Amino acid sequence: MPSIDPTVASVLDTRPLKDDLNEDELLESLEDDPALDSFREQRMQQLHEEFTRAKHLRNQEHGQHAEIKDEKQLMDIVNTGAELCVVHFFKPDFHRCGTMDGHLEKLAPLHFDTRFLRINVENAPFLVTKLKVKVLPCLIAFKKGVSVDRIIGFEGLGYSEDTFSTKDLERRLLKSGTLVREKLTDVHGAESGQETRPDSRQKASQAEDDDDDWD
Predict the structure, then answer these.
(1) Is the preceding omega at residue 137 within 30 degrees of 0, hence cis?
(2) Could you give the C-alpha distances from 64 to 85, 101, 134, 155, in angstroms and in order?
(3) CB of 100 within 8 A of CB of 140?
(4) What contacts 158, CB < 8 A, 6 or more positions away?
(5) Each residue of 124-159: pLDDT tens digit?
(6) What percent of the chain lies above the pLDDT cut of 90?
């Protein structure tokens, strides 16, 4: 991935990749920085290039947490379509899968260099067997088609088994190299919400379908 000036990154990284992202507004933000004087033109040019690249990636379906319903299509994307991919294997009726999707939907518009994908395990029998997906949610991170990390349930996230924030998930994916750079501040991470430890009633309803063998 191209290196980027920290000042330019600070302007870009707080804006999710959406249709209404306006380059003029980004340039105005950059112009307001008093430290720009000696590097103004260079940084403004880099911001323009990054903005153009981001819009191009968005046209290739980056910047969203997209569901893929055909496992061959998923394999094509992971192996040849995108260098960095995060794939969530899920079942629609699993509460924790929905929680994981919520965090991924917050990360996807910020980390536009990475494809965020989800596939129902019922639509991916070959991949489920090949990748030994047995517990859901299952999140697998890929670089150039090679698996570099796997998150089973909420394992390794947050301070307890059932508590984590979007920031926690971002940190984990950064360690695997499937995200380019940190984009959520601690404040953003806190605002992104946490999966709290379920009470006794929630435990009873979730015990049979969450973080367990699904087949």
Answers:
(1) yes
(2) 12, 11, 26, 24
(3) no
(4) 164, 165, 168, 194, 195
(5) 999 999 999 999 999 999 999 999 999 999 999 986
(6) 51
